[in-house]
Design goal:
It is a single chain. By secondary structure, the chain is α/β, with parallel strands linked by helices. Helices cover about 25% and strands about 25% of the residues. The chain has 10 helices and 17 strands. Strands 3, 4, 5, 8, 9, 16 and 17 form a 7-stranded mixed sheet that branches. A 6-stranded parallel sheet has the order 12-11-10-13-14-15, with helices on one face. A two-stranded antiparallel ribbon has the order 1-2. Helix 4 packs across helix 5 (about 185-195). The two termini are about 20 Å apart.
Amino acid sequence: MTAKVLGYGALQAKAKLAPYHFERRAPRVDDVVIEILYCGVCHSDLHHVYGDWATRYPIVPGHEIIGRVTQVGDNVTKFKSGDLVGVGCMVDSCQHCEPCDHGLEQYCEEGNTLTYNSLDKHDHMPTFGGYSENIIVSDKFVLKIPQNMELSSAAPLLCAGITTWSPLKHWKVNQNSRVAVVGLGGLGHMAIKLAKGLGAEVTLFTRSKGKEQDAVRLGADHVILSTDENQMQSAKNRFDLIIDTVPSIHDLNPYIPTLTLDGTIVLVGYLGDLNPFLNTAPMVMGRKSVAGSLIGGIAETQEMLDFCAKHHITSDVEMIDIQYIDKAYERMLKSDVKYRFVIDMASLKKDK
C-alpha cells in the first residue's frame, strides 16, 4: 500500500515551494523507512525547482537527508528501528554494470535513480526527496551516521562533502599534496576542510577580497586573489590538484598554469560548455589535465562519513524552518549563506 506523505514541493518551474501531499511507494523487503530529521539545501535543489535543469513536476527536492529508522524490510540486516542514518543523492542503481560492481554507483551505465526527480526502477513511481516527513530507500543506499556526529551539520556531507571527498581520494591526496580550491561556498568550504583533514597544504583561489580570515579558519594555509596577476604568477607550477567548485560558467585558463607537472583541475560545481575555450598549450607543455567528478559511491560516502567523525569535520550550517525555503533560495542566489542551509524538518509539523 502506498502512503500519503507531507512535504514541500513545486508544481511548475519557478513556482513557490509550498506544502504538498504526495504518495510514497509501499516498502519492499530490502527497504528502510526513515523519519527525516534534517535536510540540507543544495544548489541542485534550486536549479531543479527553477527549471534550469530537466525537471519532472511536481518535484519535492532534498538529497542531504539525516533521519531515524522507523521500519525495515524482512531482508534488511544492517539497520534496525531507531538507527540514525543518512541518504544522499542516489537511492538505487542497476547493481550489475562495471561501475556498480566497483562501488561507483554514481556512474551507473544504466543511470542511477536519483533521490528526487527520477523514476523508481521497479514500479516506475516518481522519486520525491527530503523536504518531507519520511523516505523509503533500499538498504544498499542507506548510510550509517557515526554516533558522535552533530546531526544537523552532518546533512551537507551527503552531497557537498562527498562531492569534494571523491576527487580528493581518487587523485590520492595526502600529507605531501598541494591542493587548491576555487570558490568558497557550500562545496568549497568542505573541500578545504577535507583536504586539510587529509594532511594537504591547502590554498583558496577567490575573486573576492576579505575572505582570508574565514578561509584560514576553515583550514586554508594560503589565499590567492585570482584577479591579481602577480599573485597568480607566483603560484605557477604549484598545485597537484585543484578542486573547482564554481557552479557557473567561468574562465579556467588562469588556473591551468598553476598546476604542477601531471597536475589536474577537476570540476565539481559546473555543468555545461566552457567559455572561453581552453588554451591547450600549458596543458600539453606540462601534461596537465582538466577533469570532472560526480558525487561518490555508497562505499566511499560511508568512508567519508567515518573520516569526518574521526576528525571532527562537519559543514558550517545555518538552520532554517521549511517555511523559510523560498527566502533561502533567494539568499543562495546572492551567495548569502555560510555555508549551507539545513532544514529542521520538525518545522513541517506547523503545516499539518
